[in-house]
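Can't paste images in this forum, so I'm doing it all in text. The chain is below; anyone willing to post the predicted structure tokens underneath?
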Amino acid sequence: MRPQFIYLDLGNVIVWFDHAKAWQQMADLAGIDSVAVRAVATAGGLQESLERGHIDWPEFHSQFSSRTHTATDPEALAHAASDMFSLNIGMLPVIAGLERIGCPTGILSNTCAIHWEHLLAKHYSVLPGNFVQIVLSHLVALQKPEPGIYELAAERAGVRPDQIFFCDDIPAHVDAARAAGWDAEIFVSAVGLADALDRRGIKLGL
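Text version of the structure:
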């Protein structure tokens, strides 16, 4: 069946990111070890709470400062935590091709406000571009691979679940999409995505 709507993940699909770079930049600013930064942000649950929209950046900064016994400028720490992205240039012709043939396309991503705002500030032509739906975890208080975020995204797409094709770099997110009735593939490369779309009748002419 030819998909009627395409959802793409953001991180490591449309843009590349490097968490290790962010941890190190935060560590350098705070004057502590990057292992400690990662432990507080991930094992401590702060990053997940931020991506779920349960806390905002000022609260993250306050808790991070308290747990690490550090004092940093909130804006400087936000920049250190966010300056880890680069555009996946290989995806540009894929996104342009989907737009050219009129195939509705959206973004479905686990992310937080400071990362999304940082990406918008970089003025990439594809963000927000012409994506017709942008479903971000921190705005909907749901995360992949929870079933609810796929249900919400399908509702916003306005098509049946089996008419959606999704591409994500994390296998668990792809498995959850399939469990929700979507067609889905693990992202390996832009060329691989174009081939997957071609097999489903979406010809991008690449």
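The longest strand covers residues 105-109. The chain has a mean pLDDT of 97.
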